[in-house]
Amino acid sequence: MNIPLLSNALISPGLGIIVWMTITFAILVLILEKFGWPVILKSLKDREVAINDALTAADKAREEMKHLQAHNEELLIKAKHERDEMLRNARMTSEQIIEDARAKAQTEADRIVETARENINYEKLQAMHDLKNQIATLSIEMAEKLIKQELQSKEKANDFVKRELENVHLN
Description:
single chain
């Protein structure tokens, strides 16, 4: 069973098969050229355009993201500065409020102390006035009792009146 290789129809085709294969291939190329290649080339061109558009959009999006990121960083820095400024202002305001409260408290304490001093002086003067009145009343009562004792006799009373009249003229 030895088959020679040259006699095999697939390895060495006949002239008819070659002609028909060439005609079939030419018809296939013509059909593809007429109907297939334009569609395939159009699809490839559309795909290439779509890929380029996608790449352009991606680049544009990347640039936009860089811009947005830079803008966001600026906003973040600005917000931090504003926050720091607000905290500084709040701290200064609270310190001012505390200082004002201290000043008011000191003023009120000084006013209360001054009022207390005035009240003490008033009470002191009132007490001295009352004491003088009591001393005067006691002195009058004692003088009245002494005069009553001394004026029990008419003779002593006349001497007392004369003495007092002489004292009045001397002053």
